[in-house]
Amino acid sequence: MLLIHCPYCAEERPETEFAHAGEAHIERSTQMGELTDEGFANFFFYRDNTKGITYERWRHIHGCGRFFNAARDTVSDKFLVTYKAGEPKPDLSEIDNQTKAGAKS
Amino acid sequence: MNAPVSIQPNRIPGKGRLSAADPLRFTFDGKTLPALKGDTVASALIANDIHLVGRSFKYHRPRGIVSAGSEEPNALLGIQRDVARHTPNIRATVQEVYDGLEATSQNRWPSLKYDIGEINDIASPLLSAGFYYKTFMWPRKAWDKVYEPFIRKAAGLGKAPVHKDPDHYSSQHEHCDVLILGGGIAGLSAALAAAKNGARVIICDEQATFGGALHFDSDVTVDGMDGFSWAQKVTAELAAMDNARVLLRTTAFGYYAQNYVALIERVTEHLSAPRADLPRERLWEVRAKKVIIATGSIERHMVFANNDRPGILLASAARTYLNHYGVGVGKNVGVYTANDSAYAAAFDLKEAGINIPAIVDVRDNPNEELLAKASALGIRVLTGHGVMAAGGKLRVSSMSVAPVNGGANEVIAVDSIIMSGGWTPSVHMFSQSRGKVTYDADKSRFVPGVYAQDCVSIGACNGTDNLSATIDEAIAAGEDAARAVRHNAKQSATAINATGGEAWEGTLIGAAPGAEAGKVVKAFVDFQNDVTAKDIRLAVQEGFHSIEHVKRFTTNGMATDQGKLSNMHGLAIAAEALGKDLPEVGLTTFRAPYTPVTFGALVSHSKGTLFEPTRKTPMHDSEVAIGAVFEDVGSWKRAWYYPKTGEDMHAAVNRECKTARTNVGMFDASTLGKIEVVGPDAAEFLNLIYTNPFLKLGVGKLRYGIMCREDGFIYDDGVVARIAEDRFHVTTTTGGAPRVLNMMEDYLQTEFPHMKVWLTSTSEQWAVIAVQGPKSRDIVSPFVEGIDLSTEALPHMSMAEGTICGVPTRLMRMSFTGEMGFEINVPADYGRAVWDTLYQAVEEAGGCAYGTEAMHVLRAEKGYIIVGQDTDGTVTPYDAGLGWAVGKKKTDFVGIRGLKRPDLVAEGRRQLVGLKSVDGRSVLEEGAQIVDDPNQPMPMKMIGWVSSSYWSGNAQKPIAMALIEDGFNLMGKKLYVPMANEVIEVEVCKAVFVDEEGGRLHG
């Protein structure tokens, strides 16, 4: 079971407290009704399904109830960072270096 | 059992650590045998000179005990405590004897010594690798009748118990600073060092006593005492510390993400009469800041012809039986080795008075000191020799020895052979942690390489052979771990001085001399799955080049022992056949569990009534009292119907439906989801969430709302009440409440965070009683204060707050039946009292309670949809005939764009309509498919399906709702429902079967 850091509670809690909520940083148009077919398809249907680092939404559903974002490596299943909803994608280069430095050989 | 203990022929007085003062008795295949307290079933059987304990899986070959630990592949027994407590496939080497234990051998008939299945051994050329894949292919028809029954019968060892498991199990979450896996000298040293520096430590070991290799290695002296005694002293020291937990008989079986390790503790399996309150097993789910892996290493067998004969076992096992259990494995024990450890075993046996006719060593130049000691003890050593075959069948009787480079065979009589092909570091836990192993070519072994988690391997599992190096490594690991998690703890150095325990040299992986490629012999690699060296070569020859494929084709390493002995041999033989280096071929993946784990322990308390919570409404007990039959709806128990004496379901439902339309009925609607939506932007928010317009809904008014997903398909529905300008009482479907709240929260938090709205689930705060029917107002009004119930003051789809029976209520004039009616919300704690009071009045008036079945019929008579029954996630509000509920002037709501998609506005969509059976009798089957021409060739074009169907007592005919292509334009058209035995003719109609004008709603 993974431990996930909730950026609102500011602590790590077991995975069973959380629910996955799909890819992050997909913004709903303020002119939703006027979207083209292609625009709607990109908004609703198409997802990156990345092998490697993916940005995704989680909800601390059995905790504070807040939705937040996470950068997770889908290969190692490791969370690199979690951050509050509405915040921009974090710069991962620094985190990546820390992770590399932290790994033993 | 006070009868005198009879002689145990292989028990050696003065040897081992068990006491003759603690005799026990157990049975094996019905025969009563003596044992000593502390024995495993294996040690007790060998003490009684029994090596033959089972028949092998495929060839039914006689098999004996190979090891003294959890790696045991052969000695799998059925262990029975009583008739309900029979456990198959228990390793005799792990199961401790308790007084009265009953053990039975498996996979033999009629008896262990005379087994009919042995024919498979003679027919073995037909049963080579991939036998199943090659044989059971065609004819296809033979699968059901011949092949599958045969495979099922042949599959598996042992018999599953037939009774329900009477035991209970327990599970526990635990957190610690340092978790240490393994209680040998490395694990104990690390635990001591960590605990003395303030770390919260858990140390576990699968055995009944700590000590690991110290159980057998009598050469080791630690801090002035023999190694095993030191281990017991340290165990006691740790157990006495507040910050250390010592878990015996506890196997770490799974290593998951972020140092989450699952342990299984066997609590009562060794007790003769366990206390009833003790769990049989306890699952520990441990989250550790640091994990220290000290899982040791496992000795390998030698792969030579007939190496599976009973009486042939690992050298370290023989040493364990002698030094710990005081049991000699035989009287005349041959030794076959590629490693020094077998010498130590041979010396111990010899010194205990057991004859050692020869040590056969495949190496040309073993360690000089060992040779000198063998010579001093008078043991003949044949270097550069191999055992070409073992003789005997039910018990090994000889070994046929020849020089490795060719030469004459010499047959040496033995009653046991002990063997060592070297040692395999136990990297299972490291590997499960996703660490990557690296190949140590010098010693032909895989050792931990790149770590993936915050753990460290120490001692033998890390490839550290030397004793003092092991202790240094262990103390450093313990102190480092403590320092990392307890920065302020006082430093306390640990010093442990050990002598003896020389590092053993020598290794052989793969086939031994005499079992090389081209030799037609049965040299077993995997005992439990009957895989020989030849099978692995055959797999490669037949084109399986990936080790994972070779594994699956031959089943090497796939038995319950997970190839603890066989994996390295199998890999080496495959690599040789492929002409590749070992690391190039690679190891198969290590997976949890390390040893088999019972389902009981994994399930723990989550069974029976505790499997999942049961939700009951506040009125539940009153409904039970008036005879309700309940149905499960999600986790809810809902009153289904209320039969009177002599009534079946059909009769009860008809009566309930009729009573509600002609008189009055009451219904428990408490399971409806309820969400309180509050805040200055609450109306704006609901206007975005629902397809309907909400801005102009007046205070005290209700509105039926539909909620879509962004794709435009119906997601949920329900009635929304405006309690105040900034306060709404939202209802959802019974099953939909959590996902609706989740969706609302999602939009509120992430898309519309600027809105000032608060969402609160109130599903369980309100009990809801629906009172429906022409007399509903007469029933309710005497109990209501502060609300004018007249249609003028409280028309259909409006609500008011007041009291009923003296308790506060949100009273809603609404209907899911088509009759005039009320839905009375009261605080849940008052639900039962209000229900009881109203029920008395209803009954006196000739009314009745109705259940969910009648509710379904009543609403279908009016064509009201149930989301999830009449919709399936591909139905838009327009398809459901609810286009009126979509706010045409709204510029945004969830689903606005989805509803404009080309496919959703296209002609010919499936639309919700009513169906009449032309014969006036046939009740359609829900889910039945509909065609427009029943005579068309198959496969027919299906144009829709029946979503709801009932007998309507009120309409006196069957009624149905269906989703049919272009249904709104097919009114009056005849369609057909083909069933197994008949074709039912139906006519499309509007989905309203009672009171088409809707006048009854208004009373």
Q: Could you walk me through the main structural features you see in this protein, from its secondary elements to its overall organization?
A:
The complex is a heterodimer of chains A (105) and B (1003). Chain A has 105 residues and is α+β, with helices and mostly antiparallel strands. Chain A has a single domain, classed as Folate-binding superfamily (Folate-binding fold). In chain A, a hairpin with a 7-residue loop joins β4 (53-59) and β5. Chain A has 2 helices and 6 strands, in the order βββαβββα. The model of chain A is unreliable at 101-105 (pLDDT under 50). In chain A, strands 3-4-5-6 form a 4-stranded antiparallel sheet, covered by helices on one side. With 1003 residues, chain B is of the alpha+beta class. Chain B has 7 domains: 1-161, Roll (Ubiquitin-like (UB roll)), CATH 3.10.20; 170-297 and 426-499, FAD/NAD(P)-binding domain (3-Layer(bba) Sandwich); 301-421, 3-Layer(bba) Sandwich (FAD/NAD(P)-binding domain), CATH 3.50.50.60; 508-580, Arc Repressor Mutant, subunit A; 612-671 and 764-868, Gyrase A, domain 2 (2-Layer Sandwich); 672-762, Aminomethyltransferase beta-barrel domains (Alpha-Beta Plaits, 2-Layer Sandwich); 907-1002, Elongation Factor Tu (Ef-tu), domain 3. In chain B, strands 8, 9, 12, 13, 14, 15 and 28 form a 7-stranded mixed sheet that branches. In chain B, strands 41-42-43-44-40-34-45 form a 7-stranded mixed sheet. In chain B, β43 and β44 (821-827) form a beta hairpin. In chain B, α5 packs parallel to α6 (227-239), α8 packs parallel to α9 (368-377) and α12 (533-541) packs across α13. At the A-B interface, α1 of A face α20 of B. Chain A: It holds the Pfam family SoxD. Chain A: This is Sarcosine oxidase subunit delta.
The top-level CATH class of the largest domain in chain B is Alpha Beta
Helix content of chain A: 10-25%
- Structure annotation, total helices of chain A: 2
CATH architectural category of the largest domain in chain B: 3-Layer(bba) Sandwich
How much of the polypeptide of chain B forms β-strand, as a percent range?
A: 25-35%
CATH fold-level topology of chain A: Folate-binding fold
Number of strands of chain A: 6
Radius of gyration of chain A: 15 Å
Number of domains of chain A: 1
Which class do the helix and strand fractions of chain A yield?
alpha+beta
Give the helix level of chain B as a range of percent. 10-25%
State the end-to-end distance of chain A: 24 Å
Q: Treating each run of at least 4 consecutive H or I residues as one helix, how many helices of chain B?
A: 24
Strand arrangement across the biggest beta sheet of chain A: 3-4-5-6
- CATH class of chain A reads Alpha Beta
Assigned CATH superfamily of chain A:
Folate-binding superfamily
Strand content of chain A: 25-35%
**How confident is the prediction overall: mean pLDDT of chain A?**
90
Overall number of domains of chain B: 7
Mean pLDDT of chain B: 94
